[in-house]
């Protein structure tokens, strides 16, 4: 289908529309009486993926009702695997196109259930401390909840055995699994789009299971929007944990940038980014590289520059290292669900007041300003939930983030399936 015979697209939604009220976001398109037009995966592909703005959050994969979007193992990005029906949901839930993600950075009072977020400097008791990236608080929290049967498992990340430093989604169902998966992986796993497969592999029923989802803030934005508007009766996500984030890396570019510093990715056991410095170390703890993180700018996901959500504001709990001493995790408990989980896991954790709360606020503020200056469209937390295809093109066309034509290798697929 060419751009010229594209079906009509929905109008931008009204600014007066209430926040987070549930229902299908397309039905919130209150000024439109005609059924909204179709937007195809092809449109998303050209606008976000080919334009190198995809942040690999997998919201589109999770949102597709016909399972038409899969994950390209080679390229590590969404791809069409069967007929696209033009239902537009991949567009609607993509934080780099149709989803005005900043609308999801403020939970409703009902969703929060807590008057104020509570911030802690936390560290794990026992074995989780050594397994974790910082204080091991996330590992300890999830392990305690699984052992107390509050959760059946947690969708976390582990490193691919074949491909060093590449993150894979992993359904941890025991403390041992979580200890194995501890630490940060600086590439996306696309776990949100693979939850059903992970559950099926473990013989768990999505309608019965209660899972935690751990991910970068953009992943949690997608999960939160799906939860708000989808009302999937079988939604197994019972707790969301965001890892605070200013950028993630495109796996192959990360590996090749390390190579340019003569660092073999197979030797790298841990990457850490603290106070603007990137450290890579081997399994003995020997430092292989210490350099300004800016030297890795070109390896970052380009879409990250449009992200204002350093803290993971839509999550039940956020975790990072900024503002706390080495060996501690900064934990922000944002919702009543998060508070109940935090309380249930108290035996596995030591928590005190955070040392430098100002540092957290400062970084969050910097991150928001970066997004505001990079986004070709207006950054508008009060704006309509959805951004129409036309509105998006109007803002992005003519900029260095405009849509790019499809990879010729894929065109035949789209001719057949879109
Ligand atoms: C891409 C990325 C960028 C980050 N940038 C910052 C930053 O700029 N500032 C900051 O303060 N903190 C940042 N963090 C968070 C920080 O690295 C730690 O994850 C956080 O402090 C929690 O530490 P912990 O020891 O409690 O976690 P752990 O006990 O190590 O538990 C972390 C859990 O998260 C899972 N996990 C790790 N990586 C991923 C991933 N990519 N996707 C899904 N799950 C994953 C692990 O499997 C593990 O279960 C970043 C994390 C990531 C993944
Ligand atoms: S940014 Fe997320 S939702 Fe958008 S195309 Fe990429 S993976 Fe899909
Ligand atoms: S900076 Fe934002 S968009 Fe990029 S990985 Fe982190 S949360 Fe996602």
TrEMBL record:
<dbReference type="GO" id="GO:0052592">
    <property type="term" value="F:oxidoreductase activity, acting on CH or CH2 groups, with an iron-sulfur protein as acceptor"/>
</dbReference>
<feature type="compositionally biased region" description="Basic and acidic residues">
    <location>
        <begin position="12"/>
        <end position="29"/>
    </location>
</feature>
<feature type="domain" description="4Fe-4S ferredoxin-type">
    <location>
        <begin position="76"/>
        <end position="104"/>
    </location>
</feature>
<dbReference type="InterPro" id="IPR017896">
    <property type="entry name" value="4Fe4S_Fe-S-bd"/>
</dbReference>
<dbReference type="InterPro" id="IPR007516">
    <property type="entry name" value="Co_F420_Hydgase/DH_bsu_N"/>
</dbReference>
<feature type="domain" description="4Fe-4S ferredoxin-type">
    <location>
        <begin position="45"/>
        <end position="74"/>
    </location>
</feature>
<dbReference type="Pfam" id="PF14697">
    <property type="entry name" value="Fer4_21"/>
</dbReference>
<dbReference type="InterPro" id="IPR017900">
    <property type="entry name" value="4Fe4S_Fe_S_CS"/>
</dbReference>
<dbReference type="Pfam" id="PF04422">
    <property type="entry name" value="FrhB_FdhB_N"/>
</dbReference>
<protein>
    <submittedName>
        <fullName>Coenzyme F420 hydrogenase/dehydrogenase beta subunit domain protein</fullName>
    </submittedName>
</protein>
<dbReference type="InterPro" id="IPR045220">
    <property type="entry name" value="FRHB/FDHB/HCAR-like"/>
</dbReference>
<dbReference type="InterPro" id="IPR007525">
    <property type="entry name" value="FrhB_FdhB_C"/>
</dbReference>
<feature type="region of interest" description="Disordered">
    <location>
        <begin position="1"/>
        <end position="37"/>
    </location>
</feature>
<dbReference type="Pfam" id="PF04432">
    <property type="entry name" value="FrhB_FdhB_C"/>
</dbReference>
């Amino acid at each position: 289908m060419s751009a010229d015979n594209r079906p009509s697209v929905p109008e931008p939604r009204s600014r007066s529309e209430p926040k987070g009220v549930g229902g299908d976001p397309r039905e919130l398109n209150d000024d439109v009486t005609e059924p909204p037009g179709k937007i195809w995966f092809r449109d998303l592909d050209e606008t976000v993926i080919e334009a190198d703005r995809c942040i690999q959050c997998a919201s589109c994969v999770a949102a597709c009702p016909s399972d038409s979007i899969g994950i390209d193992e080679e390229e590590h990005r969404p791809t069409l695997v069967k007929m696209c029906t033009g239902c537009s949901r991949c567009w609607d839930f993509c934080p780099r196109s149709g989803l005005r993600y900043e609308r999801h950075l403020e939970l409703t009072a009902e969703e929060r259930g807590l008057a104020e977020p509570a911030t802690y400097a936390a560290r794990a008791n026992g074995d989780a401390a050594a397994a974790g990236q910082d204080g091991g608080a996330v590992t300890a929290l999830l392990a305690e909840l699984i052992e107390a049967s509050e959760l059946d498992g947690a969708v976390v990340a582990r490193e691919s055995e074949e491909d060093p430093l590449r993150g894979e989604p992993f359904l941890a169902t025991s403390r041992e699994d979580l200890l194995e998966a501890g630490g940060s992986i600086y590439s996306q796993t696309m776990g949100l789009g693979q939850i059903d497969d992970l559950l099926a592999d473990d013989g768990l029923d999505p309608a019965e299971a209660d899972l935690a989802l751990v991910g970068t803030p953009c992943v949690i934005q997608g999960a939160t929007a799906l939860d708000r508007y989808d009302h999937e009766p079988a939604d197994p996500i019972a707790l969301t944990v965001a890892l605070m984030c200013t950028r993630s890396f495109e796996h192959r570019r990360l590996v090749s940038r390390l190579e340019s510093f003569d660092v073999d990715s197979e030797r790298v056991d841990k990457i850490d980014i603290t106070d603007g410095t990137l450290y890579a170390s081997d399994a003995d703890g020997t430092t292989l590289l210490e350099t300004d993180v800016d030297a890795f700018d070109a390896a970052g996901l380009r879409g990250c520059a449009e992200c204002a959500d350093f803290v993971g504001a839509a999550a039940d709990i956020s975790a990072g290292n900024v503002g706390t001493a080495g060996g501690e995790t900064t934990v922000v408990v944002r919702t009543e669900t998060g508070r109940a989980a935090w309380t249930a896991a108290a035996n596995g954790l030591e928590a005190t007041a955070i040392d430098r709360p100002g540092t957290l606020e400062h970084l969050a503020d910097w991150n928001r300003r970066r997004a505001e200056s990079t986004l070709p469209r207006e950054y508008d937390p009060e704006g309509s939930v959805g951004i129409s295809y036309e509105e998006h093109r109007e803002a992005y066309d003519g900029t260095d983030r405009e849509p790019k034509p499809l990879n010729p290798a894929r065109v035949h697929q789209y001719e057949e399936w879109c």
